[in-house]
């Protein structure tokens, strides 16, 4: 792969062929284009070259790779140049990559070459950068399927030097190439595209290798910065700091994550999170939401799963007093468990100004430990204190004090530590403070009643505290589920309707290895047949039984998850996701049905417009011709020769108008049906100019023609191109003011030939330009004598049928310029390039 033509892909490929031949590999050259470069041609010495196949097309002979000959030869490796090349009509396949597919199917390895601008996914990006549309493309999947991809790299300055020395293009092409396609800016952008595309593929391969080998440790192949968001006011500071860290390394990734867990972070502000998400995405990062039981553990698990190298956390907003009672915070725990992930604690203006919203909706292990510690310490402590003042306190005071201890322990540790305190307090009260002392015997009924009520109250208080904790936990869980569902619903409302993206969110949020939406397509009494509609993660399930959890979306749809079993409350939440997925499937199918119905509606609309538009235009010439012929046949009037000639001329003009109208209608209908025959061939523009001007008759004298003879040949259908230009010139003549005739000129840029029809008329507003190409559209022109408004619609359709385009532009100083763009001829006859086509051939790399 190369960033641009001329970087040395073919030379490198032939060098690899020579090395393999020397190692004893059976290798042949199926097709190589040397472009006349002597050093490249020299690399063919010693290599077996399969003769090319000669194809006759429209009176000319062209050569292509002889696929059948290579298959019959059956080498181990075949060299096939120009992966994105379009074959001559009459070849076995339309594209060369399809030829390569046939070789691979036959067990023959293939080495090929391609430029980054020919990849389908970035074709539009390349056109924006260079201004040159690429007519030949190859699907990304074809290139991604390669076992190995090697980038042949060269700096823009070095490539321009190669061109200046005549090592890439012929001398007459060098100046134009250096000033247009091969500018330093263009080459730098193409080089960056190539490097980034290849880096993404390498990264995908690395992630797959890590997954296959269960590698959880961080490999610092690329900086990946994870920033943790709580929805607090410090979020924007953290995001910008993390973005700067990621920007220090070229190709660094920024990932923002918000942890929603069943027992906490109920104080997150959804509005703030939405704003922070928008900021992350504006900085080129991605936003993620994960459900986790323990925030530090969930953060680090997410970071390791994404092969993150750095974790950015905000300094704690808790006060020192709060930190003293609640122990180490998230930052300290993350630092302790981070391993080889660097943890950044970022200071901000909110540090130490309060405490985070309550993080524990249920009793954590820390609180249980504190509760049991108090249960062990408080009864002996109270016994010691009360024994000092034994003569001043009675049993009632002692019971109330121990009841206070039980309530304190219940508030801290919940039910079981409080019950332990109650039992220990009862024993201490009975032994030390209930007569007879130093004995578990109780002689006074009142004392027994007091101790019994004490135990009962302690149990009730502990139960109430524990129940409140469970209710708090349930409320926190519900809030977490609602927040996750709100995020999901927001994604759908924002238009993120792709099923794989939805399933990736489900997989990520619940910590699964894969998520797959499956549809039942057939069932009988014994078996059911399922097919996956979309999936995220690996491995992909083929049946619902392959997963650890299956959640129905509806009767024929099921969401299958792999990774772990789901709790009951998690299944309820995943059920909502499954319902969303089912709704997306229905929406997609409704959209497909609407798309299928749209052509019918358009056809009906077109039919109605046709009937309205052609009513007058069919009747008018018919009526004129009929009246003229009837008059001529009349025996009642003795016509003079002059009058007879005038009537014949009227009939002839009317029938000509009728013929043009019918031809246009038929051609437009053939275009819309896709059956218009198109026969393109290499042709010079001056071939069709006389015919196009002849259709205008006397009006052609008002047109200025300036077509350079040095233009390369265009790949076009002469008859169709003649009609396109005739329509455009007729419009230009009609709207050009007196004394300012239209101009017809041509130029070339890269692999495109452009024909411009320039007038100095009133022009057309930009917001009306798309509408002017609609059939039966005159943009307010009520003059029916000039046609039904088919000219521009037909001209654009014919241009696109020849793989070209028709676009309007403003004429400097006022007016409208219609630009017809056609591909430069790429076909080569008898192993020799078609004159003027070398630049196009080179553009394919």
UniProtKB/TrEMBL annotation:
InterPro entries: HATPase_C_sf, HATPase_dom, His_kinase_dom, HisK_dim/P_dom, HisK_dim/P_sf, Histidine_kinase_KdpD, KdpD_sf, KdpD_TM
Membrane topology designation: Multi-pass membrane protein
Keyword Ligase included in the entry's annotation: no
Compartment list: Cell membrane; Membrane
Domain Histidine kinase: 613-826
SMART domains: HATPase_c, HisKA
UniProt main location, coarse: membrane
Domain of life where this protein originates: Bacteria
TM helices/strands, residue ranges: 368-388, 400-433, 445-465
SUPFAM superfamilies reported for this sequence: Adenine nucleotide alpha hydrolases-like (SSF52402), ATPase domain of HSP90 chaperone/DNA topoisomerase II/histidine kinase (SSF55874), Homodimeric domain of signal transducing histidine kinase (SSF47384)
Entry keyword set: ATP-binding, Kinase, Membrane, Nucleotide-binding, Phosphoprotein, Transferase, Transmembrane, Transmembrane helix, Two-component regulatory system
EC number: 2.7.13.3
Catalytic activity, reaction form: ATP + protein L-histidine = ADP + protein N-phospho-L-histidine
GO molecular-function terms, A-Z: kinase activity
Principal EC category: transferase
Protein name, per record: histidine kinase
Organism of derivation: Kribbella koreensis
């Amino acid at each position: 792969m190369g960033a641009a033509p001329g970087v040395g892909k073919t030379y490198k490929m032939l060098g690899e062929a020579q090395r393999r031949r020397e190692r004893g590999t059976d290798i042949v050259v199926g097709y190589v284009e040397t472009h006349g470069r002597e050093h490249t041609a020299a690399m063919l010495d010693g290599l077996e070259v399969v003769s090319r196949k000669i194809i006759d097309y429209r009176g000319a002979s062209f050569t292509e790779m002889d696929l059948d000959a290579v298959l019959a030869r059956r080498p181990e490796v075949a060299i096939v140049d120009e992966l994105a090349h379009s074959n001559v009509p009459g070849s076995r396949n339309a594209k060369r990559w399809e030829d390569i597919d046939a070789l691979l199917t036959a067990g023959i390895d293939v080495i090929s070459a391609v430029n980054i601008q020919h990849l389908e996914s970035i074709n539009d990006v390349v056109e924006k950068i260079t201004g040159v549309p690429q007519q030949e493309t190859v699907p990304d999947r074809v290139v991604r399927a390669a076992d190995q991809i090697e980038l042949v790299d060269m700096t823009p300055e070095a490539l321009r030097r190669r061109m200046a020395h005549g090592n890439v293009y012929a001398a007459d092409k060098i100046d134009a190439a250096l000033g247009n396609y091969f500018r330093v800016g263009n080459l730098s952008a193409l080089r960056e595209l190539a490097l980034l595309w290849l880096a993404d593929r390498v990264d995908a391969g690395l992630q797959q290798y890590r997954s296959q080998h269960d590698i959880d440790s961080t490999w610092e192949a690329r900086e990946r910065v994870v920033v943790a968001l709580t929805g607090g006011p410090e979020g924007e500071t953290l995001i910008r700091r993390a973005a700067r860290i990621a920007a220090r390394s070229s190709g660094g990734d920024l990932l923002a994550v918000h942890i929603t867990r069943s027992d906490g972070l109920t104080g997150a502000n959804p509005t703030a999170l939405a704003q922070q998400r928008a900021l992350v995405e504006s900085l080129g990062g991605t936003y993620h939401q994960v459900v986790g039981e323990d925030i530090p553990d969930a953060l680090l698990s997410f970071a390791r799963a994404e092969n993150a190298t750095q974790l950015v956390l905000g300094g704690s907003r808790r006060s020192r007093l709060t930190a003293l009672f609640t122990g180490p915070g998230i930052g300290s725990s993350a630092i302790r468990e981070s391993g080889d992930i660097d943890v950044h604690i970022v200071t901000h203006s909110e540090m130490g100004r309060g405490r985070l919203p309550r993080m524990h909706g249920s009793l954590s292990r820390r609180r249980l430990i504190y509760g049991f510690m108090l249960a062990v310490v408080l009864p002996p402590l109270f016994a010691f204190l009360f024994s000092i003042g034994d003569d001043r306190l009675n049993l009632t005071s002692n019971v109330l004090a121990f009841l206070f201890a039980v309530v304190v322990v219940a508030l801290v540790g919940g039910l079981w530590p409080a019950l332990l305190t109650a039992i220990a307090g009862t024993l201490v009260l009975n032994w030390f403070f209930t007569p007879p002392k130093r004995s578990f015997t109780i002689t006074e009924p009142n004392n027994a009643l007091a101790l019994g009520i004490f135990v009962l109250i302690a149990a009730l208080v502990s139960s109430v505290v524990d129940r409140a904790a469970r209710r708090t936990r349930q409320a926190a869980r519900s809030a977490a589920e609602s927040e996750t569902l709100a995020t999901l619903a927001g994604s759908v409302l924002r238009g993120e309707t792709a099923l794989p993206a939805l399933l990736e969110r489900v997989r990520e949020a619940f910590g699964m290895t894969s998520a797959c939406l499956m549809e039942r397509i057939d069932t009988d009494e014994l078996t059911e047949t399922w097919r996956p509609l979309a999936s995220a993660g690996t491995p992909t399930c083929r049946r619902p039984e392959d997963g650890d959890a299956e959640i129905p979306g509806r009767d024929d749809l099921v969401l299958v998850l792999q990774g772990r079993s789901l709790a009951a409350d998690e299944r309820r939440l995943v059920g909502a996701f499954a319902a969303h997925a089912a709704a997306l499937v229905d929406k997609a199918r409704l959209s497909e049905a609407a798309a299928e119905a749209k052509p019918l509606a358009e056809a009906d609309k077109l039919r109605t417009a046709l009937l309205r538009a052609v009513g007058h235009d069919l009747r008018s010439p018919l009526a004129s011709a009929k009246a003229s012929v009837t008059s001529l046949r009349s025996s009642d009037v003795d016509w003079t020769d002059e009058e007879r000639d005038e009537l014949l001329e009227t009939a002839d003009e009317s029938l000509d108008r009728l013929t043009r109208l019918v031809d246009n209608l038929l051609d437009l209908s053939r275009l819309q049906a896709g059956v218009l025959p198109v026969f393109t061939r290499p042709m010079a523009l001056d071939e069709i100019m006389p015919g196009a001007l002849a259709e205008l008759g006397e009006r052609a004298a008002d047109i200025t023609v300036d077509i350079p003879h040095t233009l390369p040949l265009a790949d076009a259908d002469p008859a169709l191109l003649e009609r396109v230009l005739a329509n455009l010139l007729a419009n230009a003549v009609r709207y050009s003011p007196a004394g300012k005739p239209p101009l017809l000129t041509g130029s070339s840029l890269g692999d495109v030939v452009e024909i411009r029809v320039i007038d100095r008329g009133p022009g057309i507003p930009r917001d009306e330009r798309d509408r002017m190409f609609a059939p039966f559209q005159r943009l307010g022109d009520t003059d029916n004598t000039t046609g039904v408004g088919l000219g521009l619609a037909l001209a654009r359709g014919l241009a696109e049928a020849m793989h070209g385009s028709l676009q309007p532009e403003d004429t400097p100083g006022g007016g409208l310029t219609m630009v017809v763009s056609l591909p430069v001829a790429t076909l080569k006859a008898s192993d020799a390039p078609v004159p003027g086509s070398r630049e196009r051939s080179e553009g394919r790399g």
